[in-house]
Amino acid sequence: MKYFLLAVLYLCLIPVYFMLRNETKPKKNIILGVTLPFEARQDAAVQAICDQFLRQLNLVVLILALLPLALLPIKRTSVFLTVCLVWIIAAVIVPYIPYVQCHKRLRAYKQQACAPAERKGETLVDLRLAALPKKVVSPLWFLPPLVMALVPILHTLATAQRDASFPWMLFGYGINFLMVLLFTGLYRLINRQRAEVVDENTALTAALTHVRRYQWGRAWIAFTWLTGLFSLGFWLLLDSSIGILLLSLGYVGILVIVCIRTEFAARRAQESLTAESGQGFFADDDCYWIYGLIYYNPNDKHLSVNNRVGMGMTFNFAHWAGKLILGISVLLLLAMPFFGVWMIRLETTPITLTLNENELVATHTKELCRLERAEIRSAALLEALPDVVKLSGTGIDTFLQGKFRLEGYGVCELCLNPEAPPFLLLETAEKTWLLGTESEAEARAIYAELTEN
Asked: Which residue among 127, 205, 248, 250 is least crowded, i.e. fewest CB within 10 A of its CB?
């Protein structure tokens, strides 16, 4: 689990690093979020600011990259997870500190050394381009992934309705199918966005718009196919926890690679197409981009807008829905460490089994179950934990709680530390329970008392 989390951490940091490094290369007349005329982009002062930013960025990212390695000696998975969640917040925010500082320096240079743009602060639309027909990929490209995501749902409905894990299986496959549908819909969104107007050259606008739409389409087609294949693979590997873990890591890793490749393909094309732009009239909407990152334009009624460079989109945070999305995003980001604190409580709270003349009570952070002795049909003591696949609940190296598919036993309710056998397997008319306790002697004594009659 630690190494899986470590891989996820670097998957978060690597794209941020390369995206920020790329901000020093001029695209659509923009460097570090500042729109500059052609002459200014060649100035030594601008290059000096970019070099300073790269040095600061390299130092910050190197420190962030080394910190997770220092966390590996932490034994408790929940503590490691909590520190990792704090690290993710730092990885999302800290690299942007030198960016904002250098952005402000570059804007100050622009105000002092550059003449104001001819059409400063205006949102420009090329109506001639808007009248041209829009190329849309055939829906048939999205059909195979939809079928792949639908097969596990249909198979589960046909064969597994009596399986105790049926609702959880159907829920998981349904989420994958909805993701494929969502990706298909998001592909269509790009054709509703404004064209890429940099100057009065309509041919350039058409080329830039084509680049963004082409790369956006490639990305979402890849996402739909990857998700369809992931759903199919998850179905085939349902009884293999290691297989599902590796499949999930591979799925996330390939998604990140696809994002990076298509994003940088769009950026390289924008850099090449606009290498000579900005020598006369050029668009300048810096006043609507806070620190070059956050779009805030009360005059624009659109909720979603194109990112200034690359293929992505962002929100207009002057729009009420944009403010709501920003607020929710910030709250979710800041709340992540509290999830880790909750996991620490789960992992450090001992599991208690209490047996009296009439019932067995299992307690963790709260009462888990109260089983009448007369209800227990059978009891067994497992010296080792069989292979398990989580359906719902918590699954870390030293604590399992929730519904799990247990090899040889079907769906069971678990609450145990996998590193502290033996485990009590109790079957009632309604459920099968697999319970553990921190004391081996206590588990054996309870088993002996339950089975002596």
From this structure: 127
Structure tokens at 113: 């050394």
> How does the average pLDDT of the chain come out, rounded?
84
H helix or E strand, kind and range, residue 287: none
- What's the pLDDT tens digit per position in 166-220? 677 788 888 889 988 888 888 877 767 677 777 777 788 888 888 888 888 888 8
Long-range pairs of 133-141 with CB within 8 A, sequence gap ≥ 24: 134/191, 134/213, 135/213, 136/188, 136/191, 137/187, 137/217, 137/221, 139/184, 141/221, 141/224
Q: At which residue do the structure tokens 């970019």 appear?
A: 50
Dist CA 290 CA 295 (whole Å): 6
pLDDT at position 127 is: 43
SS3 category, 415 = strand
Paired residues of 394 in beta bridges: 401
Tokens matching residue 277: 């732009």
How much is the pTM? 0.78
Tell me how far CA of residue 82 lies from CA of 5, 63, 339, in angstroms. 11, 19, 7
H/E element, 200: none
What confidence tens digit (pLDDT) does each residue in 36-70 have? 888 888 888 999 999 999 999 999 999 999 988 88
CB 110 within 8 A of CB 29: no
- Find out whether 364 and 415 touch, Cβ atoms under 8 Å: yes
Task: Give the containing element (helix H, strand E) for 256.
Answer: helix 241-273
Closest CA to 230 of 217, 243, 215: 243
Instruction: Please name the amino acid found at residue 211.
Output: V
DSSP character for 290? E
Nearest Cα to Cα of residue 284 among 166, 118, 93, 112: 118
Q: Give the whole-angstrom CA distance, residue 277 versus residue 259.
A: 27
